[in-house]
Amino acid sequence: MDNKESSVTPETSVFHQKQSGIIPYFRIGYAMLASIFAACIIVQVFFAGMALFMGYAGWGLHISFVPMFMYLPLLMLVTGIIGRLTKKLIWMNVMLVAMIILQYITVEFSTEMGVLGALHPIIAFLLFGASLSMAQQSWKYV
After folding, report:
1. Residue 103 carries which DSSP code?
2. Fewer Cβ atoms within 10 Å of its own Cβ: the N or the C terminal residue of the chain?
3. pTM to 2 decimals?
4. Would you say 36 and 68 are in contact if contact means Cβ atoms under 8 Å apart?
5. Domain ranges of the chain
6. CA dist 9 to 4, 15, 16, 50, Å?
7. How far apart are CA 24 and CA 6, in angstroms?
8. Over the range 12-30, which residues count as b (16 or more CB within 10 Å of their CB) and which as e?
9. What contacts 43, CB < 8 A, 6 or more positions away?
10. Angle in degrees, CA 21, 25, 31, rounded to 5
11. pLDDT in tens, 34-44
12. What CA–CA distances, in Å, run from 74 to 44, 97, 124?
């Protein structure tokens, strides 16, 4: 008998096989969007830091920058599904969308939430960690 295992390894899975048609383009797009989103989180945290030490000008940047990238996870979700990325990446993407919603909740209801409003920067770090992990994982499928 042959000792070779017939199990699927990460290298031979459908996600690592060469894809044809439009799928590779959507995978590249996803990886790029995930990388851009992670970079945007860094910039957003920088603007929050500016606000703490420089006052209103920093808050203006912090507030006005969000609309420029807040929809990226939704676009990533669509490109990830079309690009046939792993279920793990797709669910992580859903998690990003949920965390962005939580970010808005912690801002809008911070006075009513009291200490829970302090979750806003924690969620930002979770967003960064998740998006960085997603970017790293998604480049493996390009």
Report:
1. H
2. N
3. 0.82
4. no
5. 23-139
6. 12, 11, 10, 47
7. 27
8. eeebeeebeeeeeebbbbb
9. 65
10. 145
11. 999 999 999 99
12. 18, 7, 17
Query: In the numeric block, which tokens belong to residue 26?
Result: 């959507």
Our CA angle for 50, 56, 57, nearest 5°, is 65
- Residue carrying the six token digits 């302090």: 118
Please identify which residue in the block is written with the tokens 């957003």. Answer: 44
The two tokens of residue 117 are 């409003």
Which tokens in the block code for residue 101? 């919603």
Six-digit token string for 29: 């797009």
What pLDDT, on the 0 to 100 scale, is given for residue 112?
Answer: 80
Residues in the chain: 142
User: Which tens digits make up the pLDDT trace of 34-75?
Assistant: 999 999 999 999 999 999 898 777 788 898 999 999 999 999
